[in-house]
Specification:
Layout: H1 5-27, H2 32-44, E1 49-50, E2 58-59, E3 62-63, H3 73-87, E4 92-96, H4 105-114, E5 118-123, H5 147-166, E6 171-175, E7 179-180, H6 188-205, E8 211-215, E9 225-226, H7 231-241, E10 245-250, H8 260-270, E11 273-278, H9 295-309, E12 320-323, H10 332-351, H11 355-363, H12 367-378, H13 383-392, H14 399-405, H15 408-416
Parallel strand pairs: 1-4, 4-5, 5-6, 6-8, 8-10, 10-11, 11-12
Antiparallel strand pairs: 2-3, 7-9
Bound molecules: 6-deoxy-beta-L-fructofuranose (LRH) and manganese (II) ion.
Length: 425
């Protein structure tokens, strides 16, 4: 079997990697079992990549294409396949309908298999008017005052589920841009009631083994109120639909200084944490690289997930991990690999927390001790553990330097051109 370039380069760098790994194992005083268990858990953490984040994003002020962008679903699957090949951390892709309507579901299924991928969730879109659309969503969709507009939006979500069924997905993600820009524009209680009624109709139309994820957002594109602004509203809508409806937490959808890790703990307590859209932000829904701005917050979120997973009292369904970011400056593929690395880093550090000492410190209200225990884990260098996880899964020891050393972006530009545009944000 011909040795791949990736294997040759890994072979060149493995001695240095082994050295760093030994050093970290000693520093962390990890016995063999603990070490092996952490490596296995890191290998198992898979985060879906969004089909709408493989091109260069932009803002209303400008967009600076990277070139070689995928201009159809097939090329998007190819790019996620490449990211998974190098990182071994993203074995699924989220689709946005109608941006990524599969023309030939059977062919797409085959292409997914070839790339070791599956479809995790399908996302509906009632925040844009499609050219052949009868009614506009300018004043909302599932909350609209006009039955006909709500019916159009409900039918769209049911159509999205039908596309998902053809691709073996089992998750519908609903994010609504519905809201108002001025006081008095919305009757808040009636807008909520109409939205609940619409979601219940979609929920009833879903196959019985499907899950609905309801995503909240405090503002944008509406700037006075959003019909689903916070986790409490999303939780009540989930309760109103049924036990296969859960809350989706997009990290960028929180007002400044929100304690997101406590929201995660609350949703785990109620057993309604359905999933995440990971990204980084300084101010609003900036959709920057995950963990680029607040790595400690990301660690604390994973600390809640790990302690929740280790607590038999927590009855929460499986949590869907997805990235939802857009890349205004960085190469989209590099940025996604960066996010995957930062997410696994936060998880690996959370696995290093000395839980029994922390529980004792919390029981004794020994504040300093508790913080120290978390800091010890957070300040650990887990990069060799992540590299080892990738190596054992057949990935690259260093995905971004491999991507650059093999001039993969240049190759994509040669094949797809400098101006190819990817559908999405
Ligand atoms: C809304 C959102 C939602 C997607 C969209 C692409 O801000 O986070 O998850 O549908 O971005
Ligand atoms: Mn999102």
């Amino acid at each position: 079997m011909k040795t791949s370039v990736l294997e040759v380069i890994n072979e060149r760098d493995v001695a240095r990697h082994q050295q760093q790994l030994e050093h970290v194992k000693n520093l962390l005083e990890l016995n063999e079992n603990a070490f092996e268990s952490i490596i296995r858990k890191i290998q198992a953490l898979q985060v879906a990549v969004p089909s709408w984040a493989l091109g260069t994003g932009g803002t209303r002020f400008g967009r600076f294409p990277a070139g070689g962008e995928p201009s159809n679903l097939e090329e998007k699957i190819e790019d996620v396949g490449l990211i998974h090949h190098l990182t071994q951390a993203t074995n699924s892709i989220s689709l946005h309908i109608p941006w990524d309507i599969p023309k030939d579901a059977v062919a797409i299924q085959q292409l997914l298999r070839t790339n070791g991928l599956t479809i995790d969730s399908v996302n509906s879109n009632t925040f844009q008017d499609q050219k052949d659309q009868k009614y506009s969503y300018k004043f909302g969709s599932l909350c609209h005052t006009d039955d006909a507009v709500r019916k159009q939006a409900i039918d769209h979500n049911i159509e999205v589920v039908e596309h998902g069924v053809k691709l073996n997905s089992k998750v519908l993600t609903v994010w609504l841009s519905d809201g108002s820009n001025f006081p008095g524009q919305h009757h808040f209680r009636r807008a909520f009631a109409r939205t609940l009624d619409s979601l219940q109709k979609i929920y009833k139309a879903m196959p019985s083994d499907w899950t609905m994820l309801i995503e909240y957002k405090p503002y944008e594109p509406n700037f006075y109120s959003m019909v689903i602004p916070d986790w409490g509203t999303s939780l009540q809508l989930s309760n109103g639909c049924g036990d296969r409806a859960h809350v989706l937490v997009d990290l960028g959808h929180h007002l400044p200084n929100t304690n997101i890790e406590q929201i995660v703990a609350r949703l785990l307590h109620f057993g309604r944490l359905g999933g995440f859209h990971f990204n980084g932000s300084q101010y609003g829904d900036d959709d920057l690289t995950t963990g680029a701005i607040k790595p400690y917050q990301l660690f604390l979120i994973f600390h809640e997930l790990v302690t929740g997973a280790n607590d038999a009292a927590v009855k929460n369904p499986g949590v869907a991990y997805m990235i939802d970011a857009s890349h205004n400056l960085k190469d989209p593929i590099e940025d996604l690999m960066n996010s995957l690395e930062n997410i696994r880093t936060a998880y690996a550090k959370a696995l290093l927390v000395d839980f029994s000492s922390l529980e004792k410190g919390q029981q004794d209200n020994d504040v300093t001790r508790c913080e120290q225990i978390l800091q010890n884990a957070f300040l650990a260098d887990v990069r060799p553990l992540l590299a080892e996880s990738r190596l054992r899964s057949g990935g690259s020891l260093d995905p971004i330097s491999f991507f650059r050393s093999q001039q993969i972006r240049e190759g994509l530009i040669k094949r797809r051109g400098k101006t190819s545009i990817a559908t999405g944000l």
